[in-house]
Design brief:
Elements lengths: L2 H19 L11 H17 L5
Helix pairs in contact: 1-2
Length: 54
């Protein structure tokens, strides 16, 4: 893995951690840890399929 992949993985980790810490709270909309995890997994899957991690 190169620097772009590591940076992106860290940013996704921050997103998941923030969602976990604020699960159920209301900001502009309700924060959902589950939806954040699904969104991150789908994004990683598309990036993997496209060769970003290859």
């Amino acid at each position: 893995m190169g620097a772009p992949q590591i940076i992106y993985a860290v940013l996704l980790g921050f997103s998941i951690a923030d969602s976990f810490a604020n699960n159920g709270r209301i900001r502009a909309g309700k924060v959902s840890f589950g939806q954040t995890c699904i969104r991150c997994l789908l994004t990683l899957g598309i990036l993997w399929w496209g060769g970003f991690f290859g």
